[in-house]
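PT: before anyone asks, these are the final sequences, not the draft ones from last week. 384 residues across everything. Please model them as a single complex and drop the result in this thread when it's through.
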Amino acid sequence: MTDPRTQNPVHPGETGQLEQVQAKLIRAERLAAVGELASGVGHELRNPLNVIRNCAYLLHTTLDKLEDAEALGTLAILDKQVDIANKIITDLLDFTRVAPPAPVCIDLNVLVRESLSWVSVPEQVTVRNNCNGQPRYIRADAEQIGRVFTNIIANAFQSMNSRGGQLTIEVGGETGLSWARFRDEGCGIPAENLDKVFEPLFTTRHRGIGLGLAISRRLVEQNGGKIEVASQVSQGTTFTVTLPQGEGGQGI
Amino acid sequence: MTDEPTILIVDDNADLLDTFARILKRRGFYVETASSGDTAVAKCRGQRYDVTLMDIVMPRTDGVDAFRQIRELWPEAPVILMTANSDDELVETARSEGVRRVMHKPIRIDQLIDFIEEVVADESDAKAAAAC
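LR: through. Structure below.
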């Protein structure tokens, strides 16, 4: 047996390693292709999405006069789907172009509360948090970390969407570090998938392309922090984002 | 000459141009359209629009180039640029050169209309102040 890249002979014990290297190379090539496509796709798809949104708006103004609630509801779904499609495009573009962070000193409590306000809470889901207590300052790019929190919260809501449950958010700190912990009571992640959830293009959902957590990890790491996950199937998942502490008193 | 606020919409996507025009007409604006940066500049030689809503990425003369040429004709003319890209060097250039706002496609119609109305109100305040 020979290494397909070098044509050198490969010993039986090296076969497993070779397969791993090949898998990584295939993955890297796949990612490079995604990156190349992303900017072109963004421009090409956002124009038709805008046309769809405009058409929905025009129909809405016509149907509004007829007071046809069902038709208006259908158009609202159409408009929401435009946002979902645009989010996929944004994820693709973000994945290939992550801007360097612009760190400021911010209170983690404020950032969590703001991120929560950006996501609609499903009817059967409740949220509990301790984000009104002692300020926990971090030094990070507020917009980037806000996106990470929003992504984790949206994932948590989605995992509890059919079964209901509670999202518990805790903010805390220790020497030099502050953390935010998001614990949901959703379907959980099987052990064999836990180490893959931060890999690009990994997804078990019908919707989405598996970039949200990959982008989140990249954003957290480039802000000097780390993101960790723990999960049990049928019980729920906990994401913990730990970031370097900022100096107190300069929060937003 | 119309009493309604005048809007020039510029985009090389015909369906986008048509639907934006119909929406803004329904909202009471006087609308003209151009399918290229060159046509937009030619139209602006003949009249000053209250607002120009223009795409950035277009063949030949892009939105930023057309914006510069319109500004040479009408230094204070308000121009809103539209872009389908998240992160565009052209956007930063346009902002630094005085474009009123850059809106990202797919544009939320209510936001667009709010902003156009804001620009139009600023314009009439400026006209009233100049008349005093």
